[in-house]
């Protein structure tokens, strides 16, 4: 197999789930497959999108919804995009400020009750941050608020803040809460400035999270490079998930200044599935962040991409229903993934759709996305 581009520039944001791309380079899985991963630490998801468009980055640790939002031209000129693989499942959180917790708001129901009381007592706007307008964190935040009767477009103000700046902005009182990937939710708990109201896996157990994204133009020009890249990252994810010892070693590496630049104590517990919400509740999570799961976590299910489009439609980011399946088939590089998985010795499911039940009881299986998008009592559809 002739590799078209030996050095591959890969962007990432400082989050725990950048681990597979970092470890693919650190452990030499890239060299095993004939490439060299050159890592680039980015400061925002908008920066990742823009650098993928200009070619400064060849591929990136990216938000699922960022890839689909760019494909559909939401907030920017449309550009044909590609999902090469899923990088992980689970491991994000919605954090409420300590100020809200002291007023009794520590979960969705108590937040809704507090907001209802304040409507009568003193009118003020609640502000919640997500990391990118079409990203996963925006969708988890909106879904969770709506599931508790809080309209995310009318009852609160949503702002966009880069993940590594969430804790600072919470401390400064610029917002009442945020949704972001770890370690920033756990960092807020450690610093005593926030409580974990819910984890993303409580919203959707084993949900899709980050992907390895690229422009379709890059993939078509460099298919063998992309196969080698996916194979290398698959091997890294499998290695991380193989043992707690490997997760500890990974946390040690990614905590360093070139990557997340935070203490290992903010990263490791939740990597091991050990959660403390900062409000007196600690537990061992049944659905912690995972990077492989025998390939199940990495397989780019068509229904996963379609779900994000249903939420874009629900919240008025799309004025009309797209051809959900056709768009997902165009973006998701299933054939390339299967070939790369074979190179890495990773099993591939035969199906392209999967079924899940979310926190509000809605079942998503990808079979009727138009009806699903229209089925919610809280939405912004035309």
Automatic annotation (TrEMBL):
Subcellular compartments: Endomembrane system
InterPro entries for this protein: NrtA/CpmA_ABC-bd_dom
Domain of life: Bacteria
Pfam families found in the cross-reference section: NMT1_2
Keyword entries, A-Z: Cell inner membrane, Cell membrane, Membrane, Signal, Transport
SUPFAM superfamilies reported in the protein's UniProt record: Periplasmic binding protein-like II
Any one Gene Ontology cellular component term annotated for this protein: endomembrane system
Name of the featured protein: Nitrate ABC transporter substrate-binding protein
Species: Pseudoduganella albidiflava
């Amino acid at each position: 197999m002739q590799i078209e581009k030996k050095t591959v520039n890969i962007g990432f944001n400082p989050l725990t789930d950048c681990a597979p791309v970092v470890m693919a380079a650190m452990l030499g899985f890239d060299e095993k497959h004939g490439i060299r991963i050159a890592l680039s630490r980015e400061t925002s998801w908008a920066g990742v999108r823009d650098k993928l468009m200009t070619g400064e980055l060849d591929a990136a640790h990216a938000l699922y919804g960022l890839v689909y939002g760019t494909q559909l031209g939401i907030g920017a000129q449309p550009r044909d995009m590609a999902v090469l693989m899923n990088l992980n499942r689970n491991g994000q959180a919605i954090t409420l400020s300590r100020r809200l917790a002291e007023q009794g708001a520590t979960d969705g129901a108590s937040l809704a009750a507090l907001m209802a009381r304040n409507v009568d007592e003193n009118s003020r706007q609640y502000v919640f941050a997500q990391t990118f307008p079409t990203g996963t964190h925006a969708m988890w935040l909106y879904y969770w608020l709506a599931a508790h009767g809080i309209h995310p477009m009318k009852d609160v103000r949503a702002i966009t803040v880069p993940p590594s700046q969430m804790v600072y902005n919470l401390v400064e009182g610029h917002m009442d809460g945020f949704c972001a990937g770890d370690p920033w939710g756990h960092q807020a708990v450690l610093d005593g400035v926030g409580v974990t109201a819910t984890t993303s896996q409580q919203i959707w157990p084993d949900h899709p999270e980050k992907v390895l994204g690229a422009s379709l133009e890059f993939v078509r020009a460099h298919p063998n490079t992309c196969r080698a890249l996916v194979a290398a990252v698959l091997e890294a994810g499998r290695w991380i998930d193989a043992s707690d010892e490997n997760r500890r070693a990974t946390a040690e590496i990614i905590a360093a200044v070139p990557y997340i630049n935070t203490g290992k104590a903010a990263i490791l517990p939740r990597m091991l599935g050990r959660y403390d919400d900062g409000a007196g509740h600690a537990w061992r999570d049944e659905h912690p962040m995972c990077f492989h799961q025998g390939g199940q976590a990495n397989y780019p299910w068509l229904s996963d991409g379609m779900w994000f489009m249903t939420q874009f439609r629900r919240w008025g980011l799309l004025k009309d229903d797209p051809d959900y399946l056709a768009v997902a088939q165009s973006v998701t590089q299933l054939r390339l993934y299967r070939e790369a998985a074979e190179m890495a010795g990773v099993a591939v499911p035969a199906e392209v759709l999967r079924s899940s039940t979310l926190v509000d009881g809605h079942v998503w299986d990808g079979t009727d996305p138009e009806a699903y998008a229209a089925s919610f009592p809280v939405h912004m559809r035309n």
